[in-house]
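Case study.
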Amino acid sequence: MAMNPMEQFEVKPLIPLHIGGYDVSFTNQSLWMCIVVGAASLFLLYASTSRRLVPTRAQSMAELAYEFVGNMIESASGAAGLKFFPFVFTIFMFVLLSNFFGLLPGSFTVTSQICVTFALAAVVIATVIITGFMQHGFGFLKLFVPKAPFLLLILLVPIEVISFLTRPVSLSVRLFANMLAGHTMLKVFAGFVIALGATAITPTPWFAPLSIAPLFLIVAITALEILVAFLQAYVFAILTCIYLNEALHLHDHH
Amino acid sequence: MPAPEPPELRALGEKLDEARGKPAREPVTPPSAMGIAFRFATELGAALFVGAGLGWLLDRWLDPRIGIRFPIFLIVMFCLGAAAGIRNVMRAAAELNAQAAQAANKENEEQ
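After joint prediction, the assembly is written out as follows.
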């Protein structure tokens, strides 16, 4: 019986593979990333084949996701942000489906690994920086210079630079920590059910019926986790839009 | 709506909205107190982490070159990181306040 609540996050190689001294094995993480990408692609392809004016259920879901992301981009970064629609939509769908697939019993939560979330955040920030330089040239560096007397700038510019460099870290840590905490909590409470239930064969069997309490709690937490799964995907996508907005429009942010 | 849709469809959508009597379609998810607290905590913590990390790297790179054995960059950058963290939290709070004010305005208009 696996009672270790952290065991679910272990990355296990399924097909060991070593190239040039690097371990590039196909792991359970790679497998679930493939499943997520495959599921998202298949669903969206299937949903968009019918193209009816009165949508089918699948088409309606796909349209809902499309409009949701589209509205989010437009409200956060204006009409100019819409050319990043494919980028933001891909990130949103990947994070959302990773979070939801992670809730399936026995599955592996891709977004509970800091390397995955940090890679996503690094791509976002790289896009922001490249966009900023393409739009404004070196004027993009004005982002780091707030309106202040010159002497204060010596102090303020490093603070702004650190503040900017914080973004990929806080973006990735938020998603990763939420998924890690939620799934650990589920496993810990599941452990309580087993531990309390096992008292049935000890000298104090009257504790055993109490195991129903953490069981109900698991149901409630699972519901909460479904909300968190959606909310974190939303937060990740909307922050991407906000950062892109700054790179596009470059008004000083405060 | 973001979709490159023909104008007659947009007009139809607007008519539908009007008929349903709702102002505009927008997905507003007000953040929970827990979400806000978590956001502030990560903003502050991440800035400290980044500042101290950069300082540590600078120390490793520069200290042997300029011949000091004192982690001056770590200390300075940690303080700057703390300042950046507080700046981040203030910025996040300002964003949330603006959102809340917007939502309150909308409610007032509706009443």
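Observations recorded in class. The helical segments of chain B are 7-20, 33-66, 72-110. The two ends of chain B are 26 Å apart (CA to CA). We will return to this complex in the next lecture.
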